[in-house]
Design a protein that fits this description.
The protein is an all-alpha fold. 56% of the residues lie in helices and 0% in strands. It has a single domain, classed as Cyclin-like (Cyclin A, domain 1). GO terms for molecular function: protein kinase binding.
Length: 194
C-alpha cells in the first residue's frame, strides 16, 4: 500500500468532478466567444480577473474539496447559485477570467447555508488564493447579485443533482448541450430561481 504522506486521499465526489467538467466546458466556450468584461459598475465586474489563473477548474474544485471540508451537497447548491446569478445577470458569461472567483464564492455561500460546521471567510480566502478583503467583497456582491435568495427547494436540488449525475454518466447518455445547464426545468420553477 502506498504511503499517504500526510495528504488527505479521500476520493473526489462525483458531484465535484461533474461540476468541474460542466464549468470547464462552459468557460472554454465562453473564452471562444467575443465578449468584453462586464462594465465596472456591473455587479459581476468584481468576479472578473485580470488574467486567467494557472489552475484548472477541476484542480481548483479539488483543492476546495480537500481543504474546505464541506458536504457534497454544497457543490450541487453552489451550481444552483451559479444558475441564479447568471439568470439575474444575462450578459455575464462564465469564462476562465471569472469562474474561479464565482466558484469559491458560491461554495462559501452554500457552505454557510447548508453545513452546520464550516470554516470562515479567512480560511476560504486562503483556500481560494485571494485576500480576505476580496473574499468578503465577492461574497457581498454575490449575495446582492442573487437578491439573497439562498434557499433551494428539494425539487430544484434534485433537478440539479440529476444534471450532475447526467454529467458523470455522460458516456452512457446522449451528449448534453455545451452550455450552462439551468437547474430549473419548468417555468414555475424558473420564477423561483429569479
Amino acid at each position: 500500500m502506498a504511503e499517504m504522506r500526510g495528504e488527505d486521499r479521500r476520493a473526489i465526489p462525483r458531484a465535484v468532478s461533474a461540476l468541474s467538467s460542466i464549468l470547464q466546458r462552459v468557460a472554454d466556450l465562453s473564452d471562444l466567444a467575443v465578449h468584453r468584461p462586464p462594465p465596472l459598475h456591473h455587479r459581476a465586474a468584481a468576479f472578473h480577473g485580470l488574467r486567467r489563473p494557472n489552475i484548472s477548474v477541476h484542480g481548483y474544485l479539488e483543492r476546495i474539496f480537500r481543504h474546505a471540508d464541506c458536504s457534497p451537497a454544497c457543490y450541487a447548491v453552489a451550481y444552483v447559485y451559479l444558475d441564479r446569478f447568471t439568470r439575474r445577470h444575462p450578459p455575464v458569461l462564465i469564462d476562465s477570467f471569472n469562474v474561479h472567483r464565482l466558484l469559491i464564492t458560491t461554495i462559501l455561500a452554500a457552505v454557510k447555508f447548508m453545513d452546520d460546521i464550516h470554516y470562515g471567510n479567512a480560511y476560504f480566502a486562503k483556500v481560494g488564493g485571494i485576500s480576505l478583503m476580496e473574499m468578503n467583497c465577492l461574497e457581498m456582491d454575490f449575495l446582492f447579485g442573487v437578491g439573497f435568495e439562498l434557499n433551494v427547494t428539494p425539487m430544484i436540488f434534485h433537478s440539479c443533482c440529476y444534471l450532475l449525475w447526467r454529467e458523470t454518466y455522460q458516456w452512457e447518455l446522449p451528449p448534453a448541450p455545451l452550455r450552462f445547464q439551468y437547474c430549473c426545468s419548468t417555468e414555475e420553477e424558473s420564477s423561483s430561481c429569479q
